[in-house]
Amino acid sequence: MASFTIFLLSLLTITTHATTTSLYLSPKTLFPNYNNMLNSFKIFIYAPPPSTTPTLFTTPQQSHFYTSLLHSPFLTQDPNHAHLFFLPFPSSTSTRSLARHIRNIRINFPFWNRTLGADHFYLSAAGVDSSSDRNVVELKKNSVQISCFPTPSGLFIPHKDITLPPMHSFQLITPSVNDVNGVNVTYLGYMKLTAGQTPSNLIEEISDHPEFIVEYEPVSKKENKKEKYKNSRFCLFVYGSDMTWMVEAMASGCVPVVITDRPIQDLPLMDVVDWSEMAVFVGVNGGVKGLKRVLDGIEKSRYERLVESGVAATQHLVWNAEPQAHDAFHMVVYQLWLRRHTVRYARWVEQ
Ligand SMILES: *[C@@H]1O[C@H](CO)[C@@H](O)[C@H](O)[C@H]1NC(C)=O
Ligand SMILES: *[C@@H]1O[C@H](CO)[C@@H](O)[C@H](O)[C@H]1NC(C)=O
């Protein structure tokens, strides 16, 4: 197993404070409903397509989700007791093989035809592309897709699909009061880019601005990096680029700022937490001036709330080697649980 997050349970205490109401979309129903899930949720797994490569999944968060599910109490051997059906297949599966696989599922089991796939789900790192094949169309339109965040544009269907939070190993640095109050803050915003990433005009403007700091990975002096992002009020991310350390930033009290040219619909835990309570979303068009205006305009009380909610939300976004209550694995399963009441289509007589 690769790297896993080191996570301190002390964070749990934060969520019980008054701010809870603003972090969750439905704070009253979330935990009772979560407990119902623990007691009742049953998932049936189909066998992967034959002649599949030994590694089904290529990203660590997918593999981890899959392994955790296989070892979880949510599985059932009896499909008649299942709320949802899981179709494992490698992300590299060609559209043709996928179509054949779904056709076999349709012919060999009674479950697909009942809902045309709506009570089925699958993992696909970058999302399944559209196709004219009926089987793939039904998979894409009806089944719940679990992809990795961020998902390429057009390959995610809001309200139906789910993303896996990024997996990144980090050591939790609990933010100090000074950090939160901005006493020791050197920079307004910190941005980390992967080596070789072509900077856009906006990134160049940000690099040139004295209140922002942009560094390229790998950052040579590790200590240096830590200080710089710890001493920044905001951590900047361009939506779609490498956002793997966003959760790490939140955990250490650096408020994520997501720079985007369109509304983001594929945030992890989108129907559990209120992202506007822990991150700031800024358009690209205002340039660095617009960015600075938005960040400067955030009042102290709101900033403190953003930090606190972000730190509190970390527990739901981290992957633990052994899944723990309310962690990323369980919250993704919870989102599946929310999707168990699927539309059951009337039987159509085909022409
Ligand atoms: C599901 O419906 C298709 C026609 O759309 C049919 O060919 C297939 O046999 C059905 N599957 C089962 C298990 O009855
Ligand atoms: C903030 O600055 C003060 C004085 O320079 C220092 O003693 C303190 O350790 C700093 N706090 C942090 C969190 O860096």
Automatic annotation (TrEMBL):
Pfam families: Exostosin_GT47
Mode of membrane association: Single-pass type II membrane protein
Subcellular location: Golgi apparatus membrane
Enzyme Commission code: 2.4.2.41
GO molecular function, a single term: xylogalacturonan beta-1,3-xylosyltransferase activity
Signal sequence segment: 1-18
This protein's GO CC annotations: Golgi membrane
Keyword Signal among record annotations: yes
Protein's UniProt keywords contain Transferase: yes
Domain Exostosin GT47, residue spans: 39-286
Swiss-Prot/TrEMBL keywords: Glycosyltransferase, Golgi apparatus, Signal, Signal-anchor, Transferase, Transmembrane
Family membership noted in the UniProt record: Belongs to the glycosyltransferase 47 family.
PANTHER family xref list: EXOSTOSIN GT47 DOMAIN-CONTAINING PROTEIN (PTHR11062:SF253), EXOSTOSIN HEPARAN SULFATE GLYCOSYLTRANSFERASE -RELATED (PTHR11062)
Record's protein name: Putative exostosin-like protein
